[in-house]
Design a protein that fits this description.
The protein is about 35% helix and about 5% strand. The chain is mainly alpha-helical. A hairpin with a 2-residue loop joins strand 3 and strand 4. Helix 1 crosses helix 5 and helix 3 packs across helix 5. The chain binds heme C. Heme C (HEC) binds next to helix 2 and helix 5.
């Protein structure tokens, strides 16, 4: 975890270094695509015509950039429940740099 991150005050997991002290370096969409597969995001989502078994639960992530931006994704992927009331998505196992990468990937689709 880089020293450029600080704990997220809004987070239930207050020790989770999910916020950036300064503007983070841009995410790498190619790494984000790999993380999306590795972390089984596909399980509860559909994207680019590929659906997991629980895709109805999380819904489609196609055209995400039309409704969300990186600032929102940073908060949501750090702690879904603190960002969206009634959120059912489990806390993703992504560190701050990985959140940038996954965000860059999702916003490019
Ligand atoms: C166990 C099921 C599940 C898994 C696994 C899961 N999600 Fe989700 N996701 C959801 C649900 C349910 C929602 C709808 C909002 C909510 O309830 O939090 C959601 C919403 C989202 C949203 C917001 C979509 C929108 O239209 O606003 C994003 C972005 C997202 N998920 C990304 C991911 C990523 C990235 C991963 C992998 C690290 C992942 N999800 C893994 C269930 C899941």
């Amino acid at each position: 975890m880089g020293s450029n991150t600080r704990p997220c005050a809004a987070c239930r997991f207050s020790d989770r270094p999910c916020a950036w002290a300064a503007e983070p370096p841009p995410g790498d969409a190619r790494l984000g695509e790999q993380l999306y597969a590795q972390k089984n995001c596909n399980l509860c989502h559909s994207l680019g015509g590929i659906s997991g078994p629980l895709a109805d639960l999380g819904g489609s992530l196609d055209n995400l950039a039309e409704r969300r931006d990186m600032a929102w994704l940073r908060r949501y992927l750090c702690n879904p429940a603190a960002t969206l009331s009634g959120a059912q998505m489990p806390l993703p196992d992504l560190n701050p740099a990985e959140i940038e990468d996954v965000g860059a990937f999702l916003l490019s689709r």
